[in-house]
């Protein structure tokens, strides 16, 4: 009913504007072209709209202005003698207000005598010539099945695994969901999903608002030295600047939320952009009598000021408030509803990140200083059978805080033909945890009752040098990083976490290149593990917990026949060591994290080893105003050691991941798109029925137990799904109106999940028991997921 009301109102608004709007308006864009090192404006630079003959040259200050453009997504091709030719990120132009885009150019080393390389939409850097993907704004806005959620958009790219459940776990090349790091305009952000799993990366809905995003760099390897604490992935999100001339307003209704965005100038040299969102899932789920009622709110902002030509300052922030309540008002819940109500705690989580990035430009480079603070609050409470009338029924009482105050200094310079980047980082961390819980293990009940107030200092040094040789055919980049902290003697020395990396790219011909990277990377175990206590002692500190280590070896070949077409093949090998290993459950934490809750709040030892290896293929055809295609295939194997030291398949050993995404722009601003995903069946662990039927064990856990002696010995059937989307845009005189219909799982594929175990009840609603009242009688309930899920989205820009 709510969706119908919103839909009817939006259609009425559209009809009113259709009557008064004009279609003959034209769009414009302006901005500045400047030297990337010195920030000096570059005069007489050629600026052309990609795929057209429309162009101009910059004036004496490096400014350009293009008018009479067709509304829609465009890129600019920029060329100037002595500088590398570039193709800009995508930007949307409309009739409402001029778009604004600054473009930086890198100085060329030499003029190529044998090989001529033209600019490409698919950029690669000297530091990371392999395993780097760039995602444009049109892919984020119009990706089928993603509903403008960047966490879902990246699942279309090679090496990224998607799961049948409605979650955004970041699983890359067989690594665990805790192995990635995220940066928003250079500020590290610990969480990008609502209802995140503490100690991992996932959640059902992304926090980042697509209204503020300009493009995304996604690294599945070859991480630059200034990006640390990652084993499998690094994501750099770049935001648009606020409109420098006039106030702009946008309102949107999406799959799960309503949002509003405003941007505009603050004085002559400062702009801002701000968005807020609120979900309406709680109301919809209540009407549908779903057993859980989630509510989320988030905000995101960016303020950028140009102090003068050599200095600029950017403030950015991101935050979320998530509440997860149980729907206890369902009359006569079915078996699946009873299972969820019995096993999931009520949860409240909020998080924020605020940061400032200061840049000072010089003749041959620039310095960057980043200061930020992030704070995660996570709490959960659970009562046996949701009876909160007595404290004796409480089975979980958990409250935790993670606070990081981070500082990073970088210096980027050009010395001759060599590009240098070096700097240092310093973090001050506060982690608190109050846990009251009883856990049942085969050896008996373990009473977890502790309070932790842990304070850490982390520090790091990094540097990277890149240069070109053999008439610019060969590019080499050598980096090194060292990290340490004062948690224990096993982590205190920088040299114990010495992290070298080497990248190379050789240009075989104008369209062909060979690429290579090898490196050693380290990541700190989750704070939940660092702060866990038993009998008042930091037991994992006594266990000499270490940084997790991963050694990468990557090689590939790349073919770029045109500036908007790329074919690439990459092989990869990751060797893990010192992964935290659960003492009680006898499994590496690398296998955990794709579920709600907390990862690492237990006794662990740094003894686990693992490996992930495979090959991935990707084809991309990108054209902002015509046809886009993204075909990716990944063959991956992922294995970790068990308690005997034998390798077994990890929870992410999907073997095959195939994704085909395409969009086609039609006449009159219509667009259609589709995405088909195929993911090989994931391994899973069967239940421990002997332990699960024990009344004492079941009551403490609120559900069944997994058989820790048979981890991942079974495998689900493969999962596949087709998503389709239709977009229609009206670029009118005083409003831009966008409408889309997104249908997920068009042919209603039913995914087979592990059966649900519930307690059998008699006619009077009492639980049936055996063995003199010591065991429940459990019954299996088939558990499938997957249905056709249509969504209507409305976006209005004023």
Protein architecture, described:
It is a single chain. It is built from nine helices and 52 strands. The strands form twelve sheets. It has a 22-stranded antiparallel β-barrel. A hairpin with a 2-residue loop joins strand 14 (180-184) and strand 15. It is globular and about 90 Å long. Residues 1-24 and 112-116 have low confidence and may be disordered.
Radius of gyration in whole Å, from Cα? Answer: 27 Å
Could you say which structural class the secondary elements and strand pairing correspond to?
A: mainly beta
Largest sheet: 22 strands, antiparallel, barrel
Give the beta-strand count.
Answer: 52
On the 0 to 100 scale, the average pLDDT is 90
Instruction: Tally the helices.
Output: 9
Summed up, what is this model?
The protein is 8% helix and 53% strand. It is mostly beta strands and 798 residues long. The longest helix is centred in the first third of the chain and has 19 residues, at 2-20.
